[in-house]
Design brief:
The protein has about 110 residues and is of the alpha/beta class. Helix content is about 40%, strand content about 20%. The longest helix is centred in the first third of the chain and has 13 residues, at about 10-25. The protein is globular.
Length: about 110
């Protein structure tokens, strides 16, 4: 059974690169640009893994809010932050929310 990975990234070019790389390895990828579009998609079906940017357009903490939303839906769902926000406090907060990992761009 093919695993589904959700990418929530507001930068279309970066999102395209991530989607292409994951599809190359056989994953089914759902891509979202905004927090609301991701929530709409997650209401239909949760992914097997969520990769979240923190800042989504003008939604400065949108990725954090998505992480909280996902953890309420399924506390065991793996979440990874992939963001340009490299401040140590951002990383600590993301991990406290339940993210499995926190990576800064570029990767």
């Amino acid at each position: 059974m093919t695993k589904t990975i959700a990418i929530v990234e507001d930068d279309a070019q970066q999102r395209c690169f991530y989607v292409a790389a994951l599809k190359k390895y056989g994953y089914r990828v759902e891509e979202y640009e905004t927090r609301q579009s991701a929530i709409d998609g997650f209401e239909r079906q949760l992914p097997d893994l969520a990769i979240l940017d923190i800042t989504l357009q003008s939604d400065v903490g949108g990725g954090y809010q998505l992480c909280q939303y996902l953890k309420q839906k399924d506390a065991c769902l793996p979440v990874i932050f992939l963001t340009s926000r490299g401040d140590e406090l951002d990383k600590i907060y993301g991990l406290q929310l339940g993210a499995w990992d926190y990576q800064t761009k570029p990767v």
